[in-house]
Amino acid sequence: MIVYLPAGLFAISLLAAYGTVGRQRQAATIGAVLAAAWSLVLLVDPSLTAWAIGPIVATLLLPRRGARARSSFEGLTRRVVTVVTALLVAIFLASRLPVGENPVLLSAVPWALGALGAAWFISPIDQPERLQGQVLMVGATGAILLAAIPAGPLTAALTGAMALVPIAGEYWRLPGRLRPALSALLLVLASAAALLAALASVNVVLVLFDIGLNISGLLLLGAAILLVAGAAATPIGIEWAAALGVLTIAAAAPALRWAALAGLIAVATTLDRRGERPAWLAMGALAMTSVLPPLAAPAWSARVQLVALAAGLVLMLFAARAATLRVLVLPTTALVVMVVLEPVNAAGVVRFQWIAAVGAMLLVSRTAVTWLLAESAGREVLRDALIAALLLVAISARDALGLGVLAAVLLLIDAAIVRIDDIPAPSSTWSRLVVLARSNWPGSITFAAAAIAVIAALQAGLALGLLAAALLAALQLAPLVDRNAASPGRVRPRSALQWVGPALSIGCGVAPALVLRMIQLAR
Amino acid sequence: MALALQALLPFIALLGAAAIVRMRPRGQSNGWIAAGATGLAAVIALVELLRLSPGEHVDVPYLTTFPYADLSIRLDGLSLAFATIVLITAALLMLARQRVRGDRRDPWFGWLLTSAAACSVILADNLLLVYIALQLLTLAWSGALDEASPRRRGMRLVVQVADIGLLLAAASAIQSVGTSAFSGVPSDTFGLATFVLVLLPVMVRIGALTQIWGGPKAAVAFEPSIAWVAPAGYLLLRLLALMGGRLPDRPTAVALFALGVLGALFFAGLALFERAGARLAGLLLAAQAGLAVALSTGDQPLLTVASTWLWLLLVPLAGLAGIRPRDGSAPEALTLLGLAMVPGSVAFVGLWLAALALNARGLLPAMIPVGLVIVVSAIAAFSHVSVKRLRRVDTATIWAGLLLLIGAFPVIAIGTLVVPAAATVRLVPRGMISASPLGLATGFGVWPALAVSVAVGTVLGLTGWRLRGRFPLRAPGAGGEPAFASLLPAMPGLPTLPAWSHVVLWGVFAVVVGAVATRP
Questions:
Q1: From the CA of B516, how many Å to the nearest CA of chain A?
Q2: CA pair distance B315, B224, nearest whole angstrom
Q3: Looking at chain A, which terminus has fewer C-beta neighbours within 10 angstroms, N or C?
């Protein structure tokens, strides 16, 4: 009987949260979090209660207004339908992915917490509820994964602490006087990481108490990319979010990894919400790849895991077309997928390649369709879609030399750091250099990446190679179409670090072998 | 001097001159610097070629990056012969441009970079490097750093897309043997598909000859010879060299021969309807290039020598045709004579050698369509020739005269340039072809070049003297644009799609994901 108490507490909290306002509602939300923590205790281990600290503190930091917000019949209906649907999906997933011999109602509580968060996020009554929804989604991601793959108390606490990230993203901006110092620090750290990756073969797991961090050449390279992106391309004030990306790719515990990614998505969508829903969907699909192996039946777990991985990546590439999603979330996700894909066998890779190829065509076709829609305002940049498509092909093309990984890394740098600002008119030597850095001509990172992607893809298979060649051909023709396209993102204030993108583009375009060396050393 | 430095000398000369020209103010002397440096680079390439033993090749590595993409230079008969002829042509074009009055534009920096890029295509040691160099060449001749720039946009994009065929060929080689370096690729690496892929950039460049000639105001067109003919010929011959001098199979050889000859016939036929001018020259050059492609399919050493002759000598001929002469001037008449492929012209030497080789194999009937191309080209060319007195000796006149001289004395080019290049493509037995001031002698027959040139020159001279005032055969203004209306319908506007089109795309994606997930 006691095993049903968390579910009961959650149900009461849910009803109370919907039926009350102000502090009672806050308490009810905390009750829902406590119910999830209780279920974790019963499902796995009492030490995991540390997870609850983060979501509870985050909920306390989100004060609710005492007055009830005005609501309409349509709005109310939408909210009810949303939460019921989300709960049904959660119960279905919990029933398909039971934790051991435990009753479904017990193992469904963390899923239900996520469903509640999703419902508040999808149909919020006001902005604080939307933020609370994100907090619960991040927290539930950690809880579900902790139930599936248990971790130590500190890891659980850190996973739970990720629930604070959406609030930090909303309210915490780095003071202006600290920004130059932080940017410089990020660049120095990035240089150190890249140097370490280039000089030494590192492949260790760094353990701090029970928090494990993977350190390898590819991850060091990824960390360098994220730190540079954080310093040079993120909106002013949230440079610190790059650290979340680094934590995501380095975390050994899946719960911490996916919770950090969820937190990063929440931060990335505070200023520009374009693509936030597909990004959360993608995060869900990707997190499922860690949930499936321990909980799902072996008969279908492996293949669905790869399908979820590929589909999640496609969704993320669709979502991360602009702003911080593109600058931080896209490279983080792609790097995590590359790491997860490494040990997959050949049959699994073929499955991944299928979806990657179709996803690549989808991304390009979808962008092409925007040019044919009646409303011309939504025209998107074809070259960005082609780079995303090539990135998919490159990640899926696994070869002995690591060319696919090399091409993917170069394309990530291109998409996240180089192609962010508008191209200046080629009038001065500097602007000519910028134009070259953003072009498809030899010497630019795009040229090197695309050419290497074609070679890697052909090594993976003829069809994939021809697809990559077709994408390269389209990339050559894209400037014709893109002249009238919308800008990829909001115009950022001029930064002293505008030289970073062009310098990286030319450097990597001229000497991609250096990057390959970092990747090869990691093997 | 270290070999690594020797191999770089042409580039140093060209890029050094480019840097000097860039830094100096606009002026007449820039042209002399550019032409001098290019000429010096040509001399360096020629000296390297002469120092090379028969069949010798030298790979000079500079930077080992990837196992299949080392930064290295290939010095062999083919590359050095092409480099020499390309640089000589470039230098002559610069000299011709230097004599043009009234054009204040300063093209030297771009031309020097184009020459250097063409050299890098020719001297690159692996297919991947050739692909990169081709892209650089396109950037150099178009000068369009901004890819959306309207400057030669159509041609530039077509060439760029076609060059992807070469990238695929390089990738295919890497997949098969782990390298795309010329020394490391066995002759059986390339199959039919790869061969067709490499033909793409060749065909596109031949097609380019018929399209753009330096714009309406350019007195000297640099690209046709340096950026289109030379890379096309070099790529085809290099691919044949990689394949051991023969095509994948006999049906492919027959098909390519037919394609080349029919293409040549088509271009020559189109030339019949053209007015005198650059486009006429372009069509006749494309016809010659078509014949060169056709003759490249042979598996006999003499046929290889013939096709190599055609390709090599087509570069200066295209350069000469790139100098836009005044109507009725002597260079124009001499250029048309060269383009007509009549006996005495440089092209005819190659065609005669091909005929000898085919005759030895009992395939002389294959020369019938070739002869037809010659007849049509000659009609097209001579119908525009006008005979006037030679008033002034200029670069183009001397150039045209030199080409006729080579036609009369093939000994000038055959031993120094053509045979070393052909011997790289396939084994050419020693003594198979011998040259003397009187002509060429092979095991299958002779070509009395001097006698034929004198005879043809006499006949043409007498004819010109006799018919002076009646040339050109075609009345001015006749045979302009084709008389038929455009077959292309008016371009329809782009269709508009409903807003739910995205849903269809995502639906298809969901179906595929479902299918892949459920497939055992």
A1: 7
A2: 9
A3: N
